[in-house]
Design goal:
Blueprint lengths: L1 H31 L20 H9 L19 H11 L23 H9 L19 H11 L23 H10 L18 H14 L23 H15 L22
This protein binds calcium ion (CA).
Calcium ion binds next to loops.
Length: about 280
């Protein structure tokens, strides 16, 4: 009782301090509110005269981009594939999942920047990486790849691509033709006035802000990414090659753990008895 009464005695000053702080923070929040102070963005290299100013401001307000530690956004730099993974994970409201204990890509480790975000993107099938096993984190995002990323992020909506291409530089046989024409049909990217889409062009960070803004408005991230729980339905002997067992485990682990019990020692590498294990 004496302890609790002494606590009560100290509460009024603490409460008063808390109220003072709340008032001070509220004042700062009002002062920084975008509706009252539109002249400058959160970034010192972006202002109202910048192309895509509203979209970049939206990106910052949503917490999708925090920019660089020196306060810049670097709007004209090409967006890299690791940063895009981070943008997309945040656009999806940071879904809960357990990252793998071992990187599924040969060119990043679990300690690489944005590993969690890249792993989320691969756990959802939005990215499969390259055929050589890499993710290419520092490579620029090209416009054709963006179409594929966004089509998958939208949950692969049903879409019949037009028989005749709306773009002079994209043929119906081109890589990602369906995804590119889908993106155009949504209005997210309609290409240039000369009827080109410029599929291999790298996307600048300011343009990516605009694409993500339109994606959020016009399409939205698919609802749930969680694969249904297959239960303890697999043993190592059910796989003929290590890679198949590892991929099965990597698909379910982030959402359901090691349900098959394939990783006895918990190091993220399953079924080392199978041919092909590293
Ligand atoms: Ca193991």
């Amino acid at each position: 009782m004496t302890v609790s009464s002494s606590r009560v005695r100290f509460q009024p000053p603490r409460l008063a301090r808390a109220l003072t702080w709340a008032l001070a923070l509220a004042t700062i929040a009002v002062a920084l509110s975008p509706s009252l102070a539109h002249a400058k963005s959160e970034f010192n290299d972006v202002d109202q005269s910048s192309k895509f100013y509203a979209e970049i401001t939206w990106l910052a307000d949503q917490g999708i981009s925090t920019g660089y530690s020196d306060g810049t956004f670097l709007p004209y730099d090409a967006i890299t594939r690791d940063a895009m993974a981070a943008f997309m994970y945040r656009l999806a409201d940071k879904p809960a999942f357990d990252p793998l204990k071992r990187s599924p890509f040969t060119d990043i480790t679990t300690r690489s920047k944005f590993f969690k975000e890249i792993n989320w993107l691969s756990s959802t099938g939005v990215t499969t990486g390259y055929a050589d096993g890499g993710y290419g984190p520092y490579k620029s995002v090209t416009r054709d790849a963006m179409a594929a990323f966004m089509y998958r992020l939208a949950g692969k909506p049903s879409f019949d691509p037009p028989a005749r291409s709306p773009f002079v530089d994209v043929a119906p046989t081109s890589k990602f033709y369906k995804e590119i024409t889908w993106l155009a049909s949504t209005g997210i990217s309609t290409g240039w006035s000369d009827n080109t889409y410029r599929p291999s062009l790298a996307i600048a960070r300011d343009a990516m802000a605009a694409f993500m803004y339109r994606f959020d408005r016009e399409v939205g991230v698919a609802g749930s990414w969680e694969p249904s729980n297959p239960g303890d339905s697999k043993n190592c002997s059910d796989f003929s090659h290590w890679r198949d067992a590892q991929e099965w485990y990597e698909r379910y682990y982030p959402y359901h753990g090691d349900i098959g019990g394939l990783d006895g020692d918990g190091d993220g590498i399953v079924c080392v008895s199978l041919p092909g294990h590293p």
